[in-house]
Amino acid sequence: MIAKNQVSQSCLVDRVENELWITNVFISTACEASVHIKVDVRSFKIKYAWWYVYRTPDCVLVRSGEIPVLIETDVQEYSTNVVLQDLDPDLREILVELISESIRCTRQSEVFISKERGYESYKEFKEYRNKILLDSCVCFSNLNHAGMLCTNHMGEQNATRIKDLFQRHKNYHIFANTDGKLFSTACFADTFHEIHLAVSFSQCGQIENISGTFLRSPSKMCCGSEKILNNLVGKNLSKMTKKEIAEFVGGSSGCTHILEMCYDLGLSLKEIELTSELNELSIAL
Fold first, then answer.
1. Span 172-284: which CATH code?
2. Per-residue model confidence as pLDDT tens digits over 141-187
3. How far is CA 163 from CA 10, 19, 21, 55, 158, in A?
4. Angle subtended at Cα 19 by Cα 46 and Cα 36, rounded to the nearest 5 degrees
5. Domain extent listing, the chain
6. Is residue 234 a contact partner of residue 17, using CB atoms and an 8 Å limit?
7. What's the pTM value of the predicted model, to 2 decimals?
8. 3 state DSSP class of 22
9. Comparing C-alpha atoms, which of 143, 165, 140 is closest to residue 154?
10. Phi, psi values for residue 159, rounded to 5°
């Protein structure tokens, strides 16, 4: 096998006094970018948001900018529509995903600042979390049977975890076999989850085989969502939007993190396609 593309993304939510400092770094074979956000601990509103792009497949110029539309936005009220029109069109795809991932990680860290957020007990915070996440995935669609495994971990550390509140690392590797078919591994690890995917693609980019394993999860129900991956056999991730992928692996019977992984794989496949097209154009010129 020949290595064709690799992607590494790392997001850290750190606490610095009364602020959360979020740093999200993306590095791939063709791209390098980062997003930096600061959030007030008590109000959960964004106080600072900035992006940097160092490399793209078709541009090596260093570019950066503030994201003023995000200032004073409540983390829990964020949607991608907030920033879509505020970013350069040619950088929009990578930056929107970096910003959205930063927001998702910040939301995950809220359990560790629940007292500052106004919740008197972990039980009260859990009731609030279950309400806003109801039916968002298989775990939060089966709260009476979810068998939460990390309740103590999340609750007890609420008072003791004061730095590095939440971390998430995602890694994707794509290889080409001698017959031109692609094979990929995808790894997702954060403070509460650890997931591994293995995917085989046809020469046309369609999924031939896909499997997944939950090495660590906050609920026993999460593990059952591995079965939904078979819904993607025959699909081409690079041709699908996140909403389209969600129809097969998301929703109340799916897993939001598996959805993210599949979408990221699609972006990696598109990166390979774009890089190949640019290389062919360069040779022709």
1. 3.30.390
2. 666 664 554 544 454 555 567 889 999 999 999 999 888 899 999 99
3. 16, 11, 10, 31, 11
4. 55
5. 172-284
6. no
7. 0.88
8. strand
9. 165
10. -90, -15
